[in-house]
């Protein structure tokens, strides 16, 4: 069960949770944005606790695959329209927490603006 505040020991664990959720709910989350642990650690000073490699990401955001689907009717497209994508609001953001030594779910929006195939 995915929810805000969930803690995971590694990216593998998080990935398993996402996979289970995706299978149960027939949605497909794809990585939308991320910051790698390695590049973040490189910025930290020598006396600072580093992010463990098992987190892989210091921050990672997933979005529903349908969020990127192009859906046009071929009519009524306004010239100033910023995007013609179906912007699905569903989102899962996870951040590494060095104090807790865990990956923590910061944001989880379990809402879709399209039909979910079952
Ligand atoms: Zn969606």
TrEMBL record:
Annotated source species: Priapulus caudatus
Q: Where is the composition biased (Polar residues)?
A: 74-83
Name any one Pfam family assigned in the record: ZSWIM3_N
Q: Where is this region: Disordered?
A: 70-89
Domain ZSWIM3 N-terminal, residue spans: 3-114
Name used for this protein in its record: Uncharacterized protein LOC106816920
InterPro entries membership: Zinc_finger_SWIM, ZSWIM3_N
